[in-house]
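thought: fold this chain, then report.
action: predict
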Amino acid sequence: IRARNGILMLDTCAAGQLPVDQISAIGNETGRLLLGASTSVQAALDSYDDRNGVFAYALREGLQGRAAMDGDGRVSALALGEWVLRRVPQ
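observation:
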């Protein structure tokens, strides 16, 4: 991928089962971020709001302004990841 930055979102059960060496290759100082809905042994909860699973619901909230915004009113990938990390367990 020629883009400098990218986000890979895995909204699936056992999302954390992606081998560690592959995860590090995706995110190791490359401008890439991996967000997963679950660990390698967890289910990703579906149908939270009759439309989205818990992970997608938290992503939407973050992108709609619940995650921290910068001075220009944009949500960074890091802020989005932090929001999802806090919100999904709730």
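thought: worth noting. The mean pLDDT is 78.
final: tokens above.
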